[in-house]
Amino acid sequence: MNNTLLVALIAGLGSMVGWGTADFFAKKTIDKMGDVQTLFWQQLVGIGPLLLLYLLHPYAPHLHHYDWLFMILLGAVSGLSYIPLYNGFGKGQLSLLSPVFAAYSVVVVVLSILFLGEPLHAWRAVAIVVTVLGILLISTDVGDLRTSFRRHAFRLAGLPEVASAMLVYSVWLIFLDKFLDGKQWVFYMLCIRTFSTIAVFLYSRVRKIQLGVTDKTLWKYLIGIGVFDVAAYSFVSYGFSHTQYPSVIAVLSATFSIPTIILARIFLGERISRQQLIAALVILGGVVLISVT
Known about the structure:
Blueprint: H1 3-33, H2 35-56, H3 65-80, H4 82-91, H5 94-102, H6 104-115, H7 122-139, H8 142-150, H9 159-180, H10 185-206, H11 219-242, H12 246-253, H13 257-268, H14 274-292
Helix pairs in contact: 1-2, 1-11, 1-12, 1-13, 2-10, 2-11, 3-9, 3-10, 4-5, 4-9, 5-7, 5-9, 6-9, 6-12, 7-14, 9-11, 11-12
């Protein structure tokens, strides 16, 4: 295994842990204070660790006006793409819609091969397919799916919102990879995160959504969401800036359901189903195949 592939593996697995842990904390806040409020504080808290990293190694890259425009666009899309996703989840069945969003990894693989010229050997392609199948299996409630078909009540409510968020996020990852290629990623992610926070704040003003945190016990969860979310983005950004394997990073990052399920089992006592266990083993097999091909 070459060094750049190793970096891609670490980046993908690091983002998996980050996003999975952030989702676990988000379960505590979204129901109590709303999705836009949670999203805003998630974005704002995440600025802190990035600012600290930048102050430890400050530098001032020479930027053109189109660099600023591109970062503003990346930031706005990063923050606002969560809104249709959350809206879709609120309208339909999470067990049927979550796999739709997880399919962003498939789109990124296809786009990386077509437009970024990423090399994809036969065994690595098999490994990616195995991992994606595991992702779809772990995020799909087969019981809900079977019941919906049996009752002829397969509900597509929320599908347009979730599908659009998935496609936007897939393209966003490709553009982020292209933008960060070979760059010192901390400064650029700090700017993108700041613009993302501003975009969510402006959206809340337009919709007249209050962002105050009335329940002080939620602060520890909001901080956890922000820190782990930005850690995930940092792993992805580092991987994009140092490797030529965006598809590997995207596929591994999409396995974020695994740490969420594990944390829910440990701290909430939620049962791990046989399907989830099988899916986790399939994903593990895919990761091993990627690492040895």
